Amino acid sequence: MRQRILTFDLGTTGIKCSLFGEDLSLVASTVVPCTVRYPAPDQAEQDPEEFWTGAVRGAREILERTGEDPGRIAAIGLSGHMNGCLPVSADGRPLHPHILHSDCRSDAEVRDIGTTIGFRRYADLTGNRPDVHYTLPKILWLRKHRPEVYRETAAFLASKDFLAGRLTGDYRSTDLSDASLMGMLDIRNRCWSGDLVRELGLDEGKLPVLHRAHDILGGLTPAAADALGLPPGIPVTAGGGDGACATAGAGALRIGEGYCYIGGTAWIGVLSEEPVADPSARLFHYADLSGESLVACGTVQNAALAVDWVLQALMAPELDTCRREGRNPHEAMEQVAASVPPGSNGVLFLPYLMGERTPFWDDRARGAFLGLGLATSRADMVRSAYEGVAYALGHVLQVFESLSLAPAALSLIGGGALSRLWTGLLADVWNRPVRVPDHPRSATSLGAAIAAAVGIGRLGCVADAAAILPPPGQARIPDPERAAFHGSRQRIFQALYPALRDAVAALAGPGGANRS
C-alpha cells in the first residue's frame, strides 16, 4: 500500500498542512490562517495555541477533502518560522506569547551582547551578528522584563518545536537549523556555546536538546492522534526551520546551489561548506536540513509586505472591487504595474518599511519614494514598489558576488514565484536565469517531507532527494537590454539609503518617531 507523509509548516500568517506521496509529489495542501498581534511599538507576537488548533483543523480538512486513509500516513514532518522565542514550562505550557522574528524590542540587549562578547568574536563564533531578530536578545529581554517567566522556563523553543511537543510530548528539542538562529550555537562545531551562554549569565539547562531534522522525536501520542484524526504512534521528525526546509524544497541540495524565496519577506540562500568570511557580517548562516552544511543567507525584511502596503495605500478601492468580483487582486495589480515601462517613469521606491537586514542591518531604516513629479501616476508608484523589492534583492545578490558565492542561476519559490512579473523582473535585475519549481508555494513543506522521508528510511540522506525531485520548470532568461537598464538603476538604488540614513534617523527622533 502506497504511503503518505503529512507535514505542518508554521508561517506568520497561516499554518500549511500538506500531504506528499512516496515520490515526494504534492498530493494536497490547505492553509489555516493565524494571527500576528502587535501589542506595542516594535513588538510582534503570536498565540502558540493557534499553532496547535491550526494543525488540528488543517489535518482534518485535508483528510476529509482527499478521503485519504489515515492509516496510510507513514510520518509527520515539521517546519516553522525561525528566530522566534517561545518559553515553555516543563509540561509544555506556554509562559509567554511567541515572540516573532520581526520583533525589535530587544535593542538594549543587542548592545549588551556586543559589549560583553564583542561583535567580531560573536560573529566568528555563531556565524551571525548580534541582532534584534534572533532569539538570544529576546531571551535576555524576558530575563530583564519578565523575570518570573525566565525563572519558570524549562526550554526556549522555536515555533515548530512547540508543535512537535504537542504531537509527541517532547518539549525539550530543536533541530540544528533553528538552533543556528537562536544566536548561541557554535556554528562550526554544531553545539551550544557554553562559554557564550555563561558569559551572558544564562542557564544552559534552559536550551533545548539538539537534533538533526530527520531525527525521530517520538510517536504521535494518543491524545494528539485523537485530536488530529490519525492513528497513534506515527513517527514525528524534529523537522527544520523554514529557511532550511525551503533550501531543500527549492532543490538547492549541493554546495554552491542557491535559491530565492519571495513572500512577505524575501531572502537568497546559497549552500556553503563553511561560514562565509565577511568582516561586515552582511550575510548570516544557519545549518541546512542535513545539519552537515550551512546556508549563507541574505534577507530583505519587506518584500510582498512592502508591495501590499503600497497597493493598499494607493489602490484600496480597486483591491476591494477585485475581491468582491472574485478576481485575484494581486494579478489585477500586476497588470497595472505591467502597463508602466521599466523604470517606473523615473520613480524609485525604497521598501524599508520595517527596517532592513542585508546589507544594512538597520532596524530603524525606513522607506521612501524618490523621483515623484506632477506627471507621476499611481501606476508608476505601483510598478516602482515591485522594482524596489527587486533592487533590494539585487543588492543582496551583489553581496554574494562580492564574496564569490553567487550562483549562476537561481530557483524562485514562494508566492512571488507564481507571478510572471516577478520572475521576469528578477531575471532582468539579477541578469541571471530564474527557474520555478512545480509547486513553488509548497517548497518549505516539501523540505519538511524530505526530512521525514530520511527519518523513516525512505531516503538515505537529504541530498538523495535530488534523484527523485522533478527539475525546476523552464527558465526565464534575462533580456540583455533590460538587464543593462536595471543595472544602472540598481546603482542609483544602492546609493539612496546611505544618503538618507541621517535624515531617517532625525525623523525617528523625539517628536518624529516612526517606529513600526
Topology summary:
Layout: E1 4-10, E2 14-20, E3 26-33, E4 45-46, H1 49-66, E5 73-80, E6 86-88, E7 98-99, H2 107-117, H3 119-126, H4 135-145, H5 147-152, E8 155-157, H6 159-168, E9 173-175, H7 176-180, E10 185-186, E11 191-192, H8 194-199, E12 209-211, E13 216-219, H9 222-228, E14 235-237, E15 240-241, H10 242-249, E16 258-262, E17 266-272, E18 284-287, E19 294-300, H11 304-324, H12 329-338, E20 348-350, E21 368-370, H13 378-402, E22 410-413, H14 420-430, E23 434-435, H15 443-455, H16 480-507
Parallel strand pairs: 1-5, 5-15, 9-12, 16-22, 22-23
Antiparallel strand pairs: 1-2, 2-3, 4-7, 6-8, 10-11, 13-14, 16-17, 17-19, 18-19, 20-21
Helix pairs in contact: 2-3, 2-4, 10-15, 11-12, 11-13, 12-13, 13-14, 13-16, 14-16
**Total beta strands:** 23
Mean of pLDDT: 94
Largest sheet: 6 strands, mixed
Looking at the structure, the CATH topology of the largest domain is Nucleotidyltransferase, domain 5
Number of domains: 3
Strand content: 15-25%
Record the strand order, biggest sheet.
18-19-17-16-22-23
